[in-house]
Specification:
Metal Transport, Frataxin, Chain A; 2 helices; about 35% strand; iron; metal-binding; Frataxin/CyaY_sf; Frataxin_CS; ferric iron binding
Length: about 100
């Protein structure tokens, strides 16, 4: 994946997060600022998703800790093979919102 594809892919990820949360009625506010996407929950807790351009990675920070994901040609996976979408759903639940990312 080149740099342009990386940024396009991440923008699609961020769009999908917003769409899925809105469709499922989740009470989450979203903010995009440069390489950072922040999800703020009703209880004021946050999940932060970062573009790590130098490594072409997607980073997720939440109450559950921090995870790094790399594109495998099909999906974003971390070193243990955990799918980004699964990790994000678990993080959202830990912050008080049940969201299924399909």
């Amino acid at each position: 994946m080149n740099l342009v594809e990386f940024h396009q892919n991440i923008e699609q990820v961020w769009d999908r997060i917003e769409e899925q949360c809105d469709e499922q009625g989740a009470d989450i506010d979203f903010e995009r600022q440069g390489a950072v996407f922040t999800m703020t929950f009703d209880n004021r807790s946050q999940i932060v998703i970062n573009k790590q351009e130098a490594m072409l990675e997607l980073w997720l920070a939440s109450r559950l800790g921090g995870l790094h994901f790399a594109w495998n040609g099909n999906d974003w996976l971390n070193g243990q093979g955990i799918n980004f979408w699964q990790a994000l759903a678990e993080a959202c639940a830990a912050h008080g919102e049940k969201v299924a990312f399909i």
